């Protein structure tokens, strides 16, 4: 036994042999902790890239509180709810792949008038908004309806932040496209799912660590301006890129993307006691898993992988804080009011459509 030093005082989980190799993949212990206590009647708002959809489903299936601030009209059957992107995230934002896009949504939530500046795309007599081009499968009737619905989602996003105790965000990509003049981010590259690509107007960005950190810090400050007591859980999607516009091989581009996002998420958590990092990426994509949780395409995560990730997610939640007294009908009343204003199992992932651009 050596002298007392920082390593000699570490628990078994701090060493690879006792933390990983000996227990094996299915017996990891204390993989993460939130670092803050939550009430048993905690309310979560969930957003992010495709993998984030698993968290909202798991919360609902386990009977924990999930904020649905933009429910479907009351007469919608389940298949239409999924088709029109209701009940996927806490508001009808569709996937939010980049930190820059999250920053944009927070800005819209704080000032819905900014929705008037979001670029719209008109095709074949239908209108789509460039932040969520596939939110309506056939597009909107006209620009007025499109902007009205976008404003509605901006209000719903704000409501979800107000009603939540915890904001869960899954970081997905470093790559994105912006409007060269306004800087507005797009959900996807124009000309892939919708819109027309214009090299002069649509600029590719492979966001760097400083850019992503700045965007996340701005977004978090905006979230806390809406709800000062909000806790935040960050995670990184283990799903590789479908395609890259960086010029690099997609394998190298994926490694860059996930590495930078992981570094930003970890540093944010290390700097702020009200932010936690949950290692979903590590559970699926690192060496000890030997790729066993990916489907044959080596990209989609299997149900077994999702189950393992969710087991660790809930194991790390500290639900020991006193329950919050809430007005019993608060959320139901809000949902009823939203419906009064309103006229499937597969994940909704716009990014997967990039494979259609593969000419090989």
Task: Give a brief outline of the structure.
The chain has ten helices and eleven strands. With 360 residues, the protein is of the alpha/beta class.
Keywords, separated by commas or semicolons:
globular; 5-stranded parallel β-sheet; 11 strands
Pick out the low-confidence regions: 334-346
Strand arrangement within the widest β-sheet reads: 3-2-6-9-10
Number of domains: 1
Calculate the terminal CA-CA distance, rounded to whole Å.
Answer: 60 Å
- Count of distinct strands: 11
Strand content: 5-15%
Principal-axes shape call: globular
How much is the radius of gyration in Å? 21 Å
Number of helices: 10
Taking the sheet with the most strands, its summary is:
5 strands, parallel
The average pLDDT value, as a whole number, equals 91
- Helix-strand pattern, N to C? HEEHEHHEEHEEEHEHEHHEH
Structural class: alpha/beta
- Fraction of residues in helix: 25-40%
Describe this structure in words.
The protein has 360 residues and is an alpha/beta fold. It has one domain (33-343). The protein is 35% helix and 13% strand. It is built from 10 helices and 11 strands. The protein has helices at residues 16-21, 52-61, 78-83, 99-110, 143-163, 209-226, 250-271, 280-285, 303-315, 330-341, and strands at 37-39, 43-48, 65-66, 120-123, 126-129, 166-171, 175-179, 202-206, 231-236, 275-277, 318-321. The strands form 4 sheets. The chain has a 5-stranded parallel sheet, with helices on both faces. β4 (120-123) and β5 (126-129) form a beta hairpin. α4 (99-110) packs across α5 (143-163), α4 (99-110) packs parallel to α6 (209-226) and α6 (209-226) crosses α7 (250-271). It is globular. The protein starts with 15 loop residues before the first helix and ends in a 19-residue tail after the last helix.
């Amino acid at each position: 036994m050596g002298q007392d030093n920082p390593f000699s005082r570490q628990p078994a989980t701090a060493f690879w042999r006792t933390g990983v190799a000996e227990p094996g993949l299915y017996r990891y212990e204390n993989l993460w902790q939130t670092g803050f206590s939550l009430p048993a009647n905690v309310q979560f708002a969930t957003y992010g890239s495709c993998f984030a959809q698993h968290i909202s489903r798991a919360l609902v299936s386990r009977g924990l509180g999930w904020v649905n601030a933009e429910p479907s009209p009351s007469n919608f059957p389940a298949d239409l709810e999924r088709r029109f992107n209701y009940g996927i995230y806490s508001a009808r934002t569709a996937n939010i792949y980049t930190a820059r896009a999250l920053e944009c949504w927070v800005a819209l939530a704080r000032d819905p008038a900014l929705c008037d500046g979001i670029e719209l795309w008109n095709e074949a007599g239908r209108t789509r908004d460039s932040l969520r081009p596939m939110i309506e499968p056939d597009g909107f009737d006209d620009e007025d309806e499109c902007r009205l619905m976008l404003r509605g989602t901006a209000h719903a996003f704000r409501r979800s932040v107000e009603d939540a105790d915890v904001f869960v965000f899954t970081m997905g990509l470093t790559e994105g496209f912006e409007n060269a003049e306004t800087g507005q981010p797009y959900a996807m590259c124009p000309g892939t799912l919708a819109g027309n690509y214009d090299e002069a107007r649509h600029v590719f960005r492979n966001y760097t660590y400083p850019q992503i950190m700045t965007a996340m810090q701005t977004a978090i400050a905006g979230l806390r301006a809406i709800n000062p007591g909000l806790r935040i859980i960050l995670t990184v999607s283990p799903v590789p890129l479908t395609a890259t516009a960086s010029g690099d091989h997609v394998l190298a581009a994926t490694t860059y993307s996930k590495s930078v996002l992981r570094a930003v998420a970890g540093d944010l958590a290390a700097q702020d006691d009200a932010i936690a990092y949950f290692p979903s990426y590590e559970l699926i994509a690192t060496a000890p898993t030997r790729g066993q949780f990916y489907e044959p395409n080596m990209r989609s995560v299997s149900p077994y992988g999702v189950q393992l990730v969710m087991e660790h997610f809930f194991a790390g939640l500290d639900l020991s804080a006193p329950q919050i007294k809430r007005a019993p009908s608060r959320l139901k009343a809000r949902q009823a009011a939203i419906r009064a204003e309103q006229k499937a199992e597969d994940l909704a992932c716009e990014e997967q459509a990039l494979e259609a651009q593969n000419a090989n």
